[in-house]
Amino acid sequence: MNRFLSYLVRRLVKTGDLTITFADGTDLRLGDGTGTPVTLRFNSSRAEWAVALDPNLKLGECYMDGEIELPVGDIYQLLEIVFKNVRQHRTVPARWVKLIEQLRRVPAQLLEWNTLGRSRSNVQHHYDLSGALYDLFLDPDRQYSCAYFEDPSMDLEQAQMAKKRHIASKLIMDREDLKVLDIGSGWGGMGLHLARQFNAKVTGVTLSDEQHAVSKQRAREDGFAGQVEFKLLDYRKLDETFDRIVSVGMFEHVGRKHFGTYFNKCARMLNDDGVMLLHTIGQSEPPTPTNPFIKKHIFPGGYIPSLSEMVVAIERSGLVITDIEVLRLHYAETLKAWRARFLENWDKAAELYDERFCRMWDFYLASSEVAFRWQDLVVFQIQLAHRPDAVPLTRDYIGRSDRAPHRAKKASESARKKREAKAK
Question: What was the pLDDT predicted at 265?
């Protein structure tokens, strides 16, 4: 086994400083000695075989289960060496790894039918984890999507606020009392921002019980209960029209087979002079399957779209693409901040769940960050409308209007007192 795995990793790792300690105690030194030293130790020959034959799934699972350890360095630094080498040397995966990925596509295609029931189950798998977990690494507004670092010196809170302003500017919130739909409203932060800043009337929909309960509570405490309504509802069941539609970090859960359904439904719900902004993780290269570890353990039913896949469905829906922006390294910086906070609160997360869960979450955050830094993951912001004149002719308005002054009605005095008491 040592010879077999040694042959594979020698083909892969040309630069960096990686030492592999096999289960029998022998060491293999790889790379050119540059960068941060990392040592990967296998605790069993079973783990060696698993990682060699199916690295895309088994590296994460073996780390999660404690079958591999990192006496020197951490999982992020190991993945950095691997991903940088793949990118720099264009290493071609072994033939059997390609075969395994092809075989996965058959059951994966069956599971991509995100019916109403399956969609709810998939969302609950991730988003109905304890709210205390998300408080360990998200900003206080619980923005669980790519932040916008318009200035590199920004911290996470500032960048998440900048993201909300940036999105609001692309929605052309040019008058009060606009009727807004937030598809995949999360813990309510985006919808409440639009209500506070622009006096919008917002409807948010989510399939997460935890998110629904928190967002409704936030609307009450902030004094927007009559203006912002959060529903535990699949967007496909809505039967209303809206002036604006926003969807942030939800499209990744739609599934490739439902792209047409999604954009057709949005086209029907968007008023003739309306504007929509879709914010989603995407691939900058041709379509490829979702990482098997992420799909199995983190986001079941998820699929990362390529731009070519989305454009076809958008064109068929009758919507007009009025603007596309590609956010490149913003999510890498967001994930870096999340992982740093998670590692600081590892013991608290272990009290909520266990060490195995913490290792799973660590691998999820680390592998996601390196994928945004050195693979093909980006974030697409796609602005849509029915009419090409629904938005200004130039993009100047984005810079001018994303810092709109506060125009919303103030939260009630009782709500303010509740927030202050909660902060204490």
Answer: 98
- HEC string of 272-287 equals EEEEEEEEEEEECCCC
Q: One-letter amino acid identity for 187?
A: W
Mean pLDDT of the chain: 88
From 5-9, 163-167, 246-250, 279-283, the region with the lowest mean pLDDT: 5-9
Tokens linked to 183: 């598809």
The Cα 160–Cα 141 span in angstroms is 9
Q: What is the pTM for the complete model shown? A: 0.89
Six-digit token string for 300: 């079941």
- C-alpha to C-alpha distance for 120 and 126, rounded to whole angstroms: 11
Residue 414 exposed, middle or buried by CB count within 10 Å (0-12, 13-18, 19+): exposed
**Beta-bridge partners for 20:** 28, 40
Mean pLDDT of 318-335: 97
Q: Are 14 and 85 in contact (CB under 8 A)?
A: yes
Q: How buried is 151 (Cβ within 10 angstroms: 0-12 exposed, 13-18 middle, 19+ buried)?
A: exposed
